[in-house]
Amino acid sequence: MITEEIIRNTSQNPNICYQCGKCSAGCPIRNYMDDSPNKIIRYIQLGLYEKALNSDTIWLCAGCLTCSTRCPKEFDLAKFMDALREIALKEGIKVKEKNLLKFHKAFLNQIKKHGRAYELGLVREYKLATGDMMSDVDVAPAMFMKGKIGILPHNIKDRKGMKDIFEKTEVKIK
Ligand code: SF4
Ligand code: SF4
Q1: What is the reported pTM?
Q2: In testing the pocket of ligand 1, which one of 27, 36, 77 has its CB within 8 Å of the most ligand atoms?
């Protein structure tokens, strides 16, 4: 049962959400999503799992935590979205948004390798995976100048510990 799996993986119960909508009102990505973030919780509350798992909302969520910090019930919606992504992958549900899964994998690979985000590695891996080498190259110089992209990664001390976490928890994609 998916609700139990979410509770087990996140230590949170989606049924505590009373649908006030404060999370969605503050979500910076809301305008690009099919369904509002609180609607995804509602789907789960009603047992409409297919609707939740097939919504592009769970993939467009940037994990920014705005919703989690605003929620009067202290429901960590960002963590909930993570759990849904993981379940969707395990269930073999296709991601509708073009290249989004490639971006997701490229991002997680940086965390696995370096222990934190490494933007240049992310861009390189994503571009190689998609074959889209030229888009956004015009913004690269400004990003370098402003220090938004570093040449070298800033590795955490315990990289082996991070790799172990991934090995124990990584979802095998169907
Ligand atoms: S802010 Fe919290 S209680 Fe309100 S709809 Fe969002 S998750 Fe539910
Ligand atoms: S964590 Fe996701 S759902 Fe929550 S505010 Fe950020 S983008 Fe929106």
Answers
A1: 0.85
A2: 77
